[in-house]
Amino acid sequence: MQIHLAKSAGFCFGVRRAIKIARGLAAARKTVCMLGDLVHNETVIQELEAAGIRKIKRLGAHCNGRLLIRAHGASRRTLTLARRHGYTVVDATCPMVREIHRIVRSMDRQGRRVIVIGDRRHDEVLGIIGQIATRAVIIDHAEHIPWQALRRVRKAAIVVQSTQNLDRVLPIVERLQKRIRDLRFFNTICQPTRMKQEEIKILPLQNDAMLIIGSRTSANTKRLYEISKALNPRTHWIQSPEELKPRWFGGMRALGITAGASTPETTTRAVIARVRALTKQIRINNSK
Q1: Rounded distance between C-alpha atoms, residue 263 and residue 50, angstroms
Q2: pLDDT, tens digit (0-9, with 9 covering 90-100), for 140-180
Q3: CATH 3.40.1010.20 fits 96-189, yes or no
Q4: For the whole prediction, is pTM greater than 0.85?
Q5: CATH number of 2-10+192-287
Q6: Annotated active-site positions, please?
């Protein structure tokens, strides 16, 4: 069986940068806390905790040291409160997410109502809307546009959660353009996400089945799975090699694999090794 691994599989620039910052602080034996998960991958978080970085859920849990802001970013209020609590803030926010923050603040100063297309409870979206005091509008689907909240809006600006699917974003933008006279649209889907989604629109058509590797908490992994599943029903979303099922590989000639932006290369290699072991066993059993 042939295995085709996507070129874009695994860590994006922002995740790699955040992990490098965290490991550097741990290596320097600094006292470090991370507010929530630095990135959305359980294996990475376990490794960072093993290195001595403490995870906290709220700012009141003071650790007398540095507070690491996750790659998804945080609200301005969170950063202010952190400093009031005495933390030294180390910002590991992805530069591409920081650019979204800059756009949102700029548009708000111009008097435009900020509209965010994204998952309303996702860490990145919460950080984006937390850049301004004015209440932003969050839209997660073309069928869920809150027209009542937008009925008097004449000037607005749209930004997009960096890991969204452009095919789902554009229908929302088109509907808003028909109702809001002065509307600016910023396609803030990041380049790594675009590359991953371009590949995932091809690989499922070229392979008998697909494996998508990544955490269930990862928004970009979820998007890859959704796109692949729509193109190839034999698409499976796993977090580790232990989740692989031998029955998935019977009679298969070609398998496509990709991994979310927070998935370590070690996990992907382990999955591939397990796939090869399973398919070898299937061949042995079939030859008996």
Answers
A1: 18
A2: 999 999 999 999 999 999 999 999 999 999 999 999 999 99
A3: yes
A4: yes
A5: 3.40.1010.20
A6: 124
